[in-house]
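[Q] Does anyone have a clean structure-token version of this?
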Amino acid sequence: MSAIGNGTFFALPGARSGATSGCAVHLGQTNASSNHVKVLQHFHAVTTYLGEEQLNADPDYDETFEAVHADKELAEEMRRTMASRERVATTLWVAVDSTEIKEHRYAVVNMMHAEDSDVYERMESRTFKPGHEALLDSGHHTGWSVYALVSPTGTSIPYNYSTVDFMNRLGPAPVAESMISAHPDQDLEAMYELLKLRENVSSETWALVAETK
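[A] Here you go.
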């Protein structure tokens, strides 16, 4: 039986309208950088929403399923789906900031813990977002986003933010050069010192399996 983690995101402006703004399934592999995380998920199903109204709207699964699979029974397909995997966890995230996100095959998801939310979000948007925009412009990456965790919460959850790097190929990227080109008047070591404002709890590399358009 496969294990699946369900991540729910608020989408940034510009996403598609409808009951949801998108759905994707990723195969994930985790590289933990601390002792906080025990790897359980093998797959991740991600649904994106434009905001609270869309998140809380009735998805009307019956009507949608019938329109797509007129020859199948929803109850039977749900039974088969539930039997095929174990849902390990569900999380809700809200988008904080993002570059443009282009078509991609991989997503590197970095779980972060920050004590000061305002300072951390300002660092990501003002210092590191321009560097990620340079990586996007050079074709090395296809996008970047930062999210804040909405739920679950509590002392057992070791992270409260995540950053996501989108790309079409895995491998080294000129991150330092991109940061310098984005901030030619700033010292690179001083910028990297800002990373101490958060702990990188774990990093997961997801490969896209399927998605809606």
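[Q] Thanks! Anything notable?
[A] Residues 180 and 186 are 7 Å apart (CA to CA).
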